[in-house]
Amino acid sequence: MFKILVTEDNKELNHAICAYLNQNGYQAMGCLNAMEAYDTMYGNLFDLIISDIMMPEVDGFEFAETVRGLNQEIPILFITARDDFASKQRGFRAGIDDYMVKPVDLDELLLRIGALLRRAKIASSKRLEIGNLILDAEEHTAYLKEEEIPLTVREFNLLYKLLAYPKKTFTRFQLMDEFWDSETSSSPRTVDVYMTKLRDKFSKCSEFEIVTVHGLGYKAVLK
């Protein structure tokens, strides 16, 4: 069972979130401030942290920075009344993974928690399994029904990125920035060539489809 730490100084909201998470298959523990959260973390291992920003003594930004300095992997989700871009920017720079503005829809919170935990599992395992397809990031290899599909490093990285975030659209420019050298002379249309190659190599794979999002880029859709 996944353990979640909820750091929120509003007692009623803290209790409501913990109760809802506990009712939906998680083990949630609530703290009313960052100092209490630090003490709780010393005696427990958590899979995800939910934190407010505006808390007494130590605010959410400092809390997130401290946690991220100790643990590079644990997902951190901010829930806050602050809807300004500067706060979001500062939060993500501090190391958080997601940001929700109050009032929080608890059903949406569940969806976001599930997505964050899936990504954390993918990142820690370095192995992605979808039906009969296995992508091993350590070996940079892809297996379909136990048969290896030859891929270049860039082809593998592009496919792994898409499948790690199914249904998420990545623009050509985003993919170029991540997987091509900054001084490359290639145009964004080079991404199209790679997607065509991947579609050809996995034409017999029924586990996913690479979909073109016209005017933007590409996404992977699981079947």
Automatic annotation (TrEMBL):
Residue numbers carrying 4-aspartylphosphate: 52
Compartment list: Cytoplasm
Residue ranges occupied by any OmpR/PhoB-type domain in the UniProt entry: 125-222
InterPro entries named in the record: OmpR/PhoB-type_DNA-bd, Sig_transdc_resp-reg_receiver, WalR-like
DNA-binding region per UniProt: 125-222
Main location: cytoplasm
Protein known as: Heme response regulator HssR
Source organism (scientific name): Paenibacillus brevis
